[in-house]
Design brief:
Blueprint: H1 9-13, H2 18-28, E1 50-53, E2 59-62, H3 64-71, H4 80-94, E3 101-106, H5 109-120, E4 126-131, H6 135-141, E5 147-154, E6 157-158, H7 160-172, E7 180-183, H8 197-210, E8 213-217, H9 233-236, E9 242-247, E10 259-264, H10 265-276, H11 284-296, H12 299-328, E11 332-334, E12 342-347, H13 354-363, E13 369-370, E14 384-388, H14 394-399, H15 401-411
Parallel strand pairs: 4-5, 4-7, 7-8, 8-9
Antiparallel strand pairs: 1-2, 3-10, 5-6, 9-10, 11-12, 12-14, 13-14
This protein binds pyridoxal-5'-phosphate.
Length: about 400
């Protein structure tokens, strides 16, 4: 892959910092003496030992070298044992079909995603985005004043024909071609759709035909309710066209703020320069905690954990759907989400739900998000509401559709 067409002028001007490079070599050289690094001396830190108790009774104590690593600056690519572990896991889960790929640990996948946008988008560039889309993504894109090329979804996720139509017409009309498409393929936020296998393949082929990169934002990858794990774009990729964003937020902890970018090595090298001059690296302590967990658990245990999470959310989804079915039939429309944490409902007989969501629902003590938050144009009227079944208790989830019924009934 030649990334020249994709990387912005600003990103291209980033150069490796001599100190970070030096620090990396020092960290990888046993018994080296360094008078070069301005690292604080960890003897001055007030931590003696850190104990972690996992659910299930397993304990870990961080002391000595592990504690020092957890408290100190580290390589911008990530704590090396975790980087290695993530390479192994990506190989196991996605089996990338080309060799020159690598991973980089970020402070959450949103951070990775924002950096990818900053690396690829000049002001005013066209960008293909699945709509509705995660509000954080749209907020990250908006300052680039992009030409939003909206790709609609149905029950099977984004529609490849729409991508083809846009690309074909722009190519015919001599307009600038989009460099990236943003896709949230599994358990999409806010719709809960899972992009079908056929569509994944077609979209990848379109990316090759029209030469764009696929930004695969997949934090709900392991939160789906299907019999088979969906094939990732990374798995379909034969040449480094996919930039994959994974997150530990939904499966291990959101507060640890850890995500992983997997992409072509040339792209990862550029991303590394971006990390060096922003956050420097993801939290060392968070990386150590996740590494120790992944190192302690067998693959079977990790996959069991994902199964448990799927069961947990599926039960809640079903409670919410049953109650919605009971109280909102005829007043609203919805699809059954195949993954993620949300039910996306369309309120019948109302062109715009903003007032309903922000006034009527709030006055009944119910907080949900109006569809506007997930549109490229936040001011556009919207009939949808996003109901999240991940956090409230099952009793609360079951209780909410009845007051919604009363509110919808009064306005319909
Ligand atoms: C689609 C999507 N992408 C990214 C994120 C942010 O993930 P992280 O916590 O890893 O930054 C979220 C969080 O809700 C999300 O829904």
């Amino acid at each position: 892959m030649d990334f020249k067409r994709f990387i912005t002028k600003v990103s291209n001007r980033r150069k490796p910092g001599i100190l970070r490079k030096w620090a990396k070599i020092f960290m990888e050289t046993p018994n080296a003496i360094s008078l070069a690094n301005g690292m604080p001396n960890d003897k001055t830190f007030p931590f003696e030992e850190i104990s972690i108790k996992y659910k299930g009774g397993h304990n870990i104590k961080l002391s000595g070298e592990d504690l020092r690593w957890s408290l100190q600056y580290g390589p911008s690519q990530g704590y090396l044992p975790l980087v290695k572990k993530m390479r192994d896991l990506q190989e196991y889960w996605h089996k990338p079909k080309y060799n020159q790929w690598d991973v980089l640990v970020t402070p959450g996948s949103m951070e990775g995603c924002s950096k990818v946008f900053e690396m690829t988008l000049e002001i005013g560039d066209p960008v293909m985005v699945q709509v509705p889309a995660y509000n954080g993504t749209l907020n990250a894109l908006t300052p680039f004043m992009p030409e939003f090329l909206e790709i609609a979804q149905d029950h099977d996720g984004i529609i490849p024909d729409e991508i083809m139509k846009i690309c074909k017409e722009r190519s015919r009309d001599g307009k600038s071609m989009p460099k990236i498409i943003y896709v949230n393929p599994t358990g999409a936020n806010p719709t809960g759709t899972v992009l079908s296998e056929d569509r994944r393949k077609r979209i990848y082929e379109l990316a090759r035909t029209y030469d764009f990169l696929i930004v695969e934002d997949d934090p709900y990858c392991f939160i789906h309710f299907l019999a088979k794990q969906p094939t990732s774009f990374l798995e379909l990729d034969t040449e480094g066209r996919v930039i994959r964003l994974d997150s530990f937020s939904k499966t291990l902890s959101a507060g640890l703020r850890l995500g992983v970018v997997t992409a072509h090595t040339d792209f990862i090298k550029k991303l590394l320069l971006h990390m060096e001059t922003t956050c420097i690296h993801a939290s060392s302590m968070s990386q150590m905690l996740v590494y120790k967990l992944l190192d302690t658990w067998s693959m079977q245990k990790l996959e069991q954990h994902f199964d448990d999470i799927q069961r947990f959310y599926r039960e809640r989804r079903d409670v919410m759907l049953a109650s919605i079915q009971k109280h909102l039939t005829g007043l609203a429309e919805w699809d059954i989400p195949d993954g993620g944490m949300f039910v996306w409902i369309k309120v019948n007989g109302l062109d715009d739900v903003m007032e309903l969501a922000t006034k009527n629902c709030v006055s009944h003590g119910i907080f949900l998000v109006p569809g506007h938050a997930f549109n490229c144009d936040f001011g556009k009227p919207d009939q949808h509401l996003r109901l999240c079944y991940s956090y409230a208790t099952t009793e609360e989830i079951e209780k909410v559709p009845f007051p919604l019924f009363k509110i919808f009934f009064n306005i319909s």
